[in-house]
């Protein structure tokens, strides 16, 4: 991909004019005392007088409003520059408490004292995300289900009731509306370069944030309401996100940034600042800076591969922004195949990684959580930042010229690229199902270690005879395993003990390790996976109930606190465990085999697919009934046996017809 050096902006002409020129057209100096009371409070009426309206009187005239507010913003910026940090803290710190991000607001003040455009842009991105989160908390004082989009939040009646419509209109000139400056979106989506964001707009938004705190304080005193801050998103199981090695590679990363055609030259300061932030252990800052640049680079690649160079720029308010969501989609808005994933599929990791970290509902969804203010920036995990940086470096390498071959072969680069080539989705529903199955199998493998009454004592329980049905069920499982051998690796089944040689965690791990294409899984596949995940979850619950129940009954047996009926029921539980273990392991094996072949099943004719789905739902019904029958308050072990017999008959019939299973790739 050749870098178009002629690109000097990613803002379309009208957007560039609005942000970079419109607010500078009025040259008159504005007196800060017009909008600032003697005790430092914001005079909202004076500020709102600069918002202009169309002839209808209802809709904001954004062009005139930006032009009118330009000198006001300049005055606020100069005022903040005249204050010392101590003066600013004394005057304004308490009015930022409502945001739950006072430190971020104070940090933005520090940034305004410098001349570094990159830091101003970063400060503005952090401020807009914190402000959005805080406004959402205020919204919940009067409503429920806070709007996801800032645009809808600012246009809500709930916020207008608290702050006043005129105040909300002032805010919408700066953020939220695609017709205004829209500072939040042009930065978070990677359209604006550092030098294109005037510092005075950052200063004004900080000023308005303090003013909102003043208004809210008055509102809460009048209504006696209490503002409750929603808890931050907390990332768990960080080890699941570990795809790339550590940050030793940063030593040559800056050189890669300067050489890669993936980086727009106007955005280079953002890349350098992101790597610097990572070195300084400012992990949230590093990721906040990197994500928009990954989007900008992918947008360049997207517009090049799909031959639509006009989409590189911000669209007008009436058109569509080219963002991550569209760039990762299977088709363009004209129904043609999106060529970007095709390019990224060699190797396959880029699309899978981006979907994992940005889009999949069970993934970390880093960009959403960060940009909407849902993450505590002070405790942002290094592990996540390491993965984003690692991914960025691999994509920089992939789109570098051949004359940097020596860099690509560097002893630090090669292991990183190897990790990239081996990457498989971790948060696609199919990947989550694999994880569920293995966790369930680990749970069932604990059963043989359960402390139980010796067999000879169980047989002495009056009325509990040797149950031949248990052996019959185990034999049925063995027969089904024999039918399934065609679909499993060779030499994994012992004729002496088919159950314990096949129904093992090792086999499930081996099958699960086979690469499955998860990108753009067809709807029938996802429908089947939903059912399979429910089946796996029910099996795991049965296992947990058996473990808990067996432990409780054994303790009661030792304490001789079991009544005659309870002793009899305990014996039936122990007999049932003998067949339930192989049956549940068989179901997990079937699920795993389905994962390997489920894409093939989705291509069958509609009748066969519906029959297949009907069968899966019948197995789900069985596992749901098992959860009920094995629960501590039911203990219906005889019913469990009969239910299992009927289900094994269904499984055997399906295996005979080979409707469910397809030939596995070797």
UniProtKB/TrEMBL annotation:
Q: Where is the DUF4209 domain?
A: 131-211
InterPro entries in UniProt? DUF4209 (IPR025209), ERMARD (IPR039635)
In terms of domain of life, where is this protein from?
A: Eukaryota
Do you know which Pfam families this protein is assigned to?
DUF4209
Q: List the protein's name.
A: EMARD protein
Gene name of the encoded protein: Ermard
